[in-house]
Amino acid sequence: MKVLVIQQRMGIGDMIIFLPYVHALSVKYKCPISLLVKKNTKAHQLLGDDRHIDKIITLDRNGNNSGSHDGIKGFFKLIEVVKKENFDKVFIFNGSLRYYLSAKFSGIKEIAQYPLFKKKDNIITSAKKLLKKEIDTPINTKPVLYLNDKSIKEAKNKYKNTDKIKHICLGFSASGPTKRWNLKNYINLCEKISKEIPCKFYLAGGRKDNELFEAFSKLDIYSNCVSFQNLSIKETLPIIKNCDIYIGNDTGWLHISSALGLKCLALFMDSPVMAYGKYSDNIIPIIPDGETEETTTHNTMGKERISIEKVYKKFLYSLTN
């Protein structure tokens, strides 16, 4: 049995949120699952040690229609790529007619998909409905990222040679300015924590966050920081696995940390808590003053309404609960 999952959403967070459904399909059909996903999901780096995953096929589509799988020509190119694999069944986690026809013309006989033309959906509930209909298997929505024991041990020996300090993964990066807590807040929070508790901070960002890293590099606390600036996602995974807690924005680093088993204090300022903050009990949402988890969504614009003191108190509480 060869099974394909098509997951066309962008980003690390969405890829990780779909993992429980991919794992459930692997268990149900007793085979590893192939994925058709976009490059920016970082699936190749995230899932290298996952025995539930077979082949990862890159879906080359982007916002300006310049990808090799965009347009009419791209439609037929994608069919060629998928057809070569001889899949028996496909699960399409969207309601696009394009992907339905791609699967049909690729010769896949069994096609399971969201209702056609469905555009707005809750990332969690829609996937659960599809799998309940197709395989009728209870799904635990809590994702797990699998790593090999050797890499975890090596990271522990390198970074966590004592349990007397707290190791904090600091997710100060974000996909946009409205989803990013002010950098000064993170700096002040780190300084406040450091005065009370011995700790080391792991600065979770990428090559596009040069200004953020540079600001931290000028601080006294930088001597207690480890930068992810020049590391690949794959290289950071065992390091994060050895951390004690995540504090940061709703970004890919949050979802990675959660899937690696960390308790996560997640600052939701301009993204939906009900979609991205409730699928795992590892995630503790921190929302703007005056909002509820239900009202904190896109266009909330609440980053000025989350205080340093609020996050600090949540951090102290998390240490004992």
Instruction: Give the low-pLDDT segments.
Output: none
Q: Which class do the helix and strand fractions yield?
A: alpha/beta
Sheet with most strands = 6 strands, parallel
Give the beta-strand count.
11
CATH architecture of the largest domain: 3-Layer(aba) Sandwich
SSE pattern: EHEHEHEHEHHEHEHEHEHEHEH
Q: How much helical structure, as a percent, in the residues?
A: 25-40%
Question: What kind of assembly state do the chains in view correspond to?
Answer: single chain
Rg measurement, Å:
21 Å
Number of helices: 12
Return the domain count: 2
Distance between the termini: 45 Å
The named CATH superfamily of the largest domain: Glycogen Phosphorylase B
Shape: globular
What CATH first level of the largest domain would be assigned? Answer: Alpha Beta
Strand portion: 15-25%
Do you know the CATH topology of the largest domain? Rossmann fold
The average pLDDT is 94
Q: How are the strands of the largest sheet arranged?
A: 8-7-6-9-10-11
